[in-house]
Structures are given as structure tokens and as C-alpha cells.
## 1
Amino acid sequence: LECIGVYWGHAMKCLKSLKMALTKLQLQKLLFPGCLFSFEIVCIVLFGLLVEYDVGGQPGHELDVAEELANETGIPEDYLLQLDSTRSTTKVYPFFQDIHVMIFVGFGFLMTFLRRYGFSSVGFNMMLAAFAIQWSTITLGLFSFIGQAQDNADRYEIFVSLESLVTTDFAAAAVLITFGAVLGKASPFQMFGIAFFELIFYAANDALNVYVFKAADVGGSMLIHTFGAYFGLACSLMLYRRKATDNDRNSNVYHSDIFAMIGCLFLWLFWPSFNGALASGNAQYRAIINTYFSMTGSVIATFIFSMILNGKNRKLDMVHVQNATLAGGVAIGSIADMLIGPWAALFVGCVAGAISVFGYKYISPKIEKWFFLQDTCGVHNLHGIPGLLSAIASVVAAGVASSGEDKNRVNYGSSLFLVFPARAPTDNLSDEELLLGIETGDGRGAGHQAGFQLALLASTLMIAIIGGLISGAIVRCTCIRHCKPIDDDELFDDDTYWELPEDADKYLPLNTDDISVVNPGIEEAHYIPEDERKEPEITVLPSDTMGLEVFGVVKKEEEITEAAVQTSTV
């Protein structure tokens, strides 16, 4: 009994020491890696139980498909075997690579504009994207059981293919758009919770379109951009922070804008792949070309209206250039594979760029003031409004589409059923249609299809807003111990969750009153408020030095510090 008492005393001391250590390590920060670890274990188990390669990854698949089509169409088997191979890895993977770069590099660097949130923008972007890829494989796969039930499958499984890799990247894009709306205001644990619930709502909305609406949205302007933007705005409303308004850290510096511009360029270059990846045949051909011209249109419109709307100075705003130049890719998304003509693609891009600039200049300040919607990255102007524009354009384009000769409609021929699968005949497909990979549809008319395009928009807005409010309320809940929101003095700051270099404060000023520019050639520079600046003393050196040195003196009550303010060579 005496030995047991001694050991019990040692055990209590160890537990007490462990408790003190955990308290010092801040349990709310340990909760996040703990949740990630638990999720990863669950995900591995679910993948082991449910996830399998689709038929494209099974031995002998190409030969089976070629034999089946050869029997149906009479086309030589060797030709069909080559055609099926072309449709698989060599066709899909290049598009997937481009989209993958957009997700992990484009979105990540686009959000680095905040002066002290670069590590979090790129780092948490990478973490959320990887999480979204895994979790959306499960959520989208579970809803695919509906189709398997309709086919009377013997066993329900989640099949992964190269195309499904693209769709999971699309789901990650929706999450990252939402991340942009709450950037700097949500803790990593809150972002994890938002992404977890968002992908459930995202998969539900996607399933509604796949099995009910069957609307055309090849570039995801409704399913991805509109959904992600309004889900993020709803979350932002629930996570409203008064101190986030006019916060000194919620601003940019010169080098952070340059990094953000790198992200913009990656997105801009690869957007045609984003819109064309899931299209096929001549529809994919049109999707790439239409997106290409729409993107150029939004760039020109951005430079025009940024200077026109920017007050008396008439100077370009880097925020507009980083974001509104991409609006053309969003606005063309739902109609990218349709027969609209290059001129219409240019027009849509120009309108989207102009609206996006107007949104950043006037709409964002108003919705924050009137509706308490703090949109850090302005996703409403880049993804929300252009997404609505694309949805409306798709209603019009669907209403005038036809597969036959009609003076009042646009003739698509057999490719109509590639763009609008639900308009395909319910039976008796031609050899040409079989060769194009067209499957039987619902036999819809043009007006009927246009109505379903509008229904998808309504469904997307409703699910996104309601889902965002619910998710935001859950992650804001403070009844969970050690899961409190970010403190006011930790908003928009990397220092809360990252180990920063020793010179971080020198290059990443805490606020606008701190050092704002560091010149590598000057040991230290002191920021002088504009109202306290004095005329500098000018010393003209001999002409043989070919230089002009300009020095200023910073005066304080207790000390006088001489500082180099500006050096220029003439």
C-alpha cells in the first residue's frame, strides 16, 4: 500500500505538470492539429472502404470499350481503341495540371496582398485545398450513390478517375473563394470547420444539378464561383468583427501587391483550361477560345474603368488590376462551350471587367457599411457578380440553341447534346452521336432548358446563403472550450500562428504608423507623418561626383536622429 501511494503521488505530479504544459501551449491551438489528425485517420478508413479506381484504371478497359462500340457502330476496332486512349490520360491530365497550379499557386498568391498575412494566405490556402480534395472525394462520391441506385448497382462504391480529380479541384476552388471572404478574420480551426460543412452543401447542390436540373455550367460560374462567393459572404456576416473595419493590418504594401500580382497572372494564364477541362469535342474547342477572348476583354475594361473611376488622380488601382482582370473568366464560364461567337466573348469579358471595378470601388464599401459584410478579398466583385452575369447569359444562350436549321435559333448540330445533355433524345441515337460520346437524355426543348438554367442559379444562391449562415454560426459558437475566435489584436496577422523571422517586423510593419519602406541601401529609415514633414536640406556636391544627396532630419522631443530619407542620382 505504501508503494502504491508513492507511485500514485508521482502519477499525480506528472499529470499536474502535463496540464501546466498544455496550458502554456494554448489548447485552442492544439485543437486544430488534433482535428486534422482525426480527420485524416477517418479519411484513410473511408478511402479503404469505399474508394476504387473507375473502369479506366482497370486492366483491359480500353479493349472492352472498343469492342462494344465496334459492335454498335461498325467502325473498325483499332480506330476506336486509339480514340478512347486519346480521350483518357493524354487529354485530361494536361488540363488537370493547369487547374492544379491555379488552385495551389494562383489562389494562394492572389491572397498575399495583406501586409502581415502572407504566410497564412499561401500556407492555409495549401492546407484547405488539400483538405478539400480529400473530403470532396467523399462527399461528391456519396451523392453519386444516387446514380448507382438508379442503375441497380450490386455494391455502392466511390469511383475515382482523372475527371474526378478535376471535379475535386473545382470543389477546392469553391472553398478557397469562401476563404477569401473571411481572410484574416477566421482562425485555422474555424476555416477547417467552414470547409468541412461547405463541401457537404456544395456536393448537395452539385447532385441537384446532376440528377434534377441538368443545367449547362461547364466553367462552374454558378456551381463554383457563385456558390463559393455567397457562401463566404454569409459566413463573413456571422463572423463579423467590428475591429476588422479600418484595421491597419487590413491593408497592402508594395511588395505584397507584387506577390498578389503573381497569383493573378497564374490564374489569368490557365483560366481557359479551367473552363474547358470537362468539355469534349468541338464544345471544348469553343470553351478555350471563348475564355481566351473574354479574359483579354476584362483586362482592357479594367484598365479603362480603373482610371476613369479613380477620382481626380485618374491613376490605376492595383486592387482592380489584381482582381477585375480575372472577371472575364468567371463571366464566360457557364456559356464558354456554347456557340456565342468570339465577339460575344469579348463583350462579356468587357462588361465583367467594368462591373468588377465598379464593385470594388463602390459596392464593397456600401455592403460593409449597410449590411455588415466584411469581404476581405472582394470575392463578391470577382466571383459573385460575374457569376450572376454568366448565369443570366446562359439562360439566354440556352433559349436560342437548336440542333436543326432555324433562322431564329443557333444551330449546334449534334454537338447540342454535348453542351446540353438533357436535350438529347430519350432513345435512338445516331452513329455520329454515339461516336461523340453522347448518351440518351430527357428530350427537353430550348425553353425548358433555359428554365432549368435559372433554377440552378436559384438553388445555388439559396443553398450557399443558408449553408453559409449555418456554418458561420457553428464555427462562431464559443460554447466549445478552447475554441474561441481570434482576438482583435490578432486579426490579419501571421504572428499568431506562424514562426516569423527575426526581421519580420522590419519588413512587415504592424500598422501604418510603423516603418513603411525599407531601402536596402540605408541601415534604418524613419517614417515621418505627412503633416510633420519639413523641407529637406539640400547639399549640392561637386560636379565630378555626378550626384545629388538629399538628407532630412527627424526631430523628437528628447532626441535628434539623422536619417536618410531619399537618395537619387542625377
Note: Residues 515-530, 543-570 have pLDDT under 50 and may be disordered.
## 2
Amino acid sequence: MGMMEDGIEKMGGMGMANGTVGGANGPLAAAVAASKNRRRPNNEIINNSMNNQQKIIRPMSHNNNLNNNGLSAPNSNNSMNNNYLDQTTLQQQSAMASSGLQQGGSPLQQPSTVLPQPNQTSLQQQSSSPLQQQSASMILSSGSSSASPTPNGISALSPTMMNSQSIDHQNSHSIPLSLSNTPGAVGVVGLGGGSEPVSPALTPVGSPRLNSSVDPSNRFSSIDSIIGQIYPLCKDQHGCRFLQKKLEEQSPRIVDIIFNEVSEHMVELMTDPFGNYLCQKLLEHCSDKQRLMIVEKVASDLVTISQNMHGTRAVQKMIEYLSSSSQIKLIINALRSSVVTLIQDLNGNHVIQRCLNRLTPQDNQFIYDAVASHCVEVATHRHGCCVMQRCIDHASDKQKLQLIKEITAQVMVLVQDPYGNYVVQYVLDLSHDAYKDWLNGLVRKMLGNIVELSRQKFSSNVIEKCLHVADGPTRALMIQELMEGDSLLMLLQDPFANYVIQTALNVSEIPQHTRLVECIKPHLASLRNTPYGKRIQNKILKERDITEKTRNKKH
């Protein structure tokens, strides 16, 4: 080997005029340089080979299906060998460079390092489809200025391509590829650097979409292309969105196609995270006959669906679009036996409230009957107290009186409850004259317990409300009860009852107001050091100053 190298060096020094063999820039000079590279230690050759292999096996980037250097990853499923640059290949290159000839026997065309590439014929044979063959053919037939074609499809790479930026190897591994219809420029397959545009993009199977702004539901071309697959698509986010868009076209044919495939699955779809939206849209655009069929299909499961976080929305939409008395009767019969259960449910209570909003008071009578029969159970529940107030809002006069009677009968229990007290206050706020007698009757129901109720957190609010809304005689009876016995000092110092006394001072008529102040004055000294009694003391002193000023003006 040494003799051959010495001979080559001598020939290079001859500098033959035709430039075919010798000269400083001739092919033999490149051959000498390549031959000298063989003197490097084997481990250095192996390391370079491994580095080049890592450049070849590169995960795809999410930007136009390219990696960081604009190169597409190889297809690990094809029979192409990705390990081009092993030690044997480098030795063959050096031998070829030493002889100054390619495999075809002609001189080398470029002085740069030669990397073997799969020839065009073999690549096309290995492609699994005509489209892949076309893409592979385009890869090798690129008119790049940085890579020069040589016989047998071997490209000689320029220093520009070989000296491209380094690649991060931490996640280097093979990814299955599939040909994408998305146009884009990629580099030469199997190389670790360069940015030569040569072919449409090769996209990893299962990779993210190229453009996140594109609506994925657009992948469905038409309703006819998914006939027979509509039911599973209802439970897919993008499929469901596509079907909703089709229903919005208000085409009877499309509505019929979708209805025929999903009508048997309405119970399941109404509780599905995505399917419930399709059900809502279908209920909106279907015919009365189809809507009746849907109601009949789900009636037996309507309570269960209403308690589901997704189903409650579909049931509310169903109630909103009820269009015939037969549909309404089916809904009423399905809900009648479970009104209280639904009222106390986190999701079901919205179904009852939608009935109150959309149905007539006569159709909602089944709700008022259930609420009146379970007044305490409903009014003392966190959701029930809200539904009870909505019942009062939407009730006819007869239905309101029905509820007032039941609330009055249970008023002592309700006013002391954290939720029930709000129901009583809501009734007391009814301003229609037709209810005045009933409201005064409700207030009188609490007489004899005013002191006790004034000292409790929830019921003290109700007593204050009663002092504002009760008629004169009833109000006077309440204030008189506050002044009797030895309870006044206790009320003045109580954290809740002191507000009742302040309200009594504000609403009482002059004769009774004077008596109340006179009853409080003996206790003013003891109120100075209490945070609650001090408010009443300041109030009385302020009133006394105002009275004296008024009296002085008269004189």
C-alpha cells in the first residue's frame, strides 16, 4: 500500500497538461487525500460512521414535516438500508478514490467525499405504491446545484451540503413514514444535512397536522361518504362537528340520513360528551314526527339522562323544542314520579327549571303538586330552595296560593334553616295585594317566638323582613313582644338580635317607638362596652339630639 501511495504522489507531481490525471486540483490529488484518510485509527472511522448514521435516522419535525435541517426521515418499513456509512463503505470509497475511478471506470467528477446513494431503479422497486415511487424518483432526480449526479445514481455532495449545521441526536430514532398530499420541500432522503428542495413531504404516521388552524372536520367530504358510519362519528369530536354543520344546512335528506342511523342510539348519545351536541342539533332541525319518535325512545330513561352532566343539556334542548301536546304528555309522564329527586340533583334541577320556563302553568301542575307535597324537603335543600323560588315566579295565582299555604304551615321549620329562610323571605317579598292577607297570616304564625327567632342567625333575617312588610297591627304585636319581660337587654347585646332591635326602631310608629326607647334607656350604660349594643346606643343618642334640636327650633 505504501508503494502504491508513493507512486500516486509521484504521478500527482508530474502535473500532466491534459488535467485528466495530474495537477494540484486534479482527481489524483483528491484520491491521494482520500487515501491518506485511511491512515486514521479505525475507531475514528467508526465514530464518524456512527455520527453519520445518527444524522440519517432523524425524527420528523412538526414544521412542514421537516427535521431541523430540512431533511425527511427515512422509512424504516421500506427495505432501504439506512446505515449507509459503515466502516466497509468508507473503505470502499477510499479504494475507489485511490484508483481514481468510479464503479463504472470513469474518473471522479468532484473532489469532495463520495457518499453512496440508493440508485433510482432500486428505490422505485422498493417503494410500496406508485405514489411512493414517484416521490422517491423525484428525490433522486432533483436539479440541485449542491449535489452532482454520477453514474449508477451516486451523488457527490458539495462541501456546502457536508458542512451543514449539526443535529441534535438525543431523540434519534426511526419513525414510520407515509406520503403526504401536503406540498413542501424536503432534503435528500437518508442524509443528515442540507436543505435541497426535491420532493413533496414525507409525513410520519400519526404525526400532528401541519396546520392547526385547519378545521379537522373538513376531512369529511360529504354526508354520502360516511353513510353507515354516522353512529360512531357522533362520538368523535370532529365527526360530531361535521354532522352538526350538515344539520345546519336544513336539508330534509341529510336530516333523514342522520336520524335513521342514530335514532336507535339516542339514550347513549345524549349522555356522550360529544354525542349530546349532535342530539341537541338533531332535536332542533328534525320534523315533529321524528321528534316524537325520539321522545318515545328516551322516555323510559329520561330521569337517568337528566341526572347526567351531558344528558341534562340534551333533555333541556328537547323540552325547549317540544312542538305537540303528545310530546309534552310523554315528558310529563316520564318526569312525574321523580320531580323531587330531580330537584335535589345537581344536573336534574335544571331540567325542572326548563320545564317551568318553557311549559305552561297548566302543564307544570305536576311540579307544583310534588313541591307542595314535599315542601320542607324541597325548600331546605340547596338546589331545592332555588327551584322553589322559580316555582313562585312562574306560577299562576292559584299555584302561588297553593305554595304559600304549605310554606305558612311549615314556617317555623323553614325560617331556621340555612336555605329554607330564603324561601320564606321570597314569599314575603310578593307585593301583590291579593297575597297581603296570606302574608300577614304567615307573619302571625311566628308570634310567640319572636324573641327566640331574633337570636338565631337565619331566622333573625326573616324577622327583620317581617317588620318591614307586615301591616301596622301585626308589626305592633311583634315589637311589643320584643319589649316584654327581661329579654330586652339580652337582645340588645346579641350579635343577631341587635339588628332586629335597630329595625324595630326604624319601622315602629311614634307612640310605640317612644316606649321602645324608654325601655332601652336604662340599659345604655351597660351597652357602652359591648360592640353590638354600642350601635343601638349611638342610634338612640343621635335621635335624642335630633329631637332636642327640633324642639329648640319650635321655641
Note: The chain is about 55% helix and 0% strand.
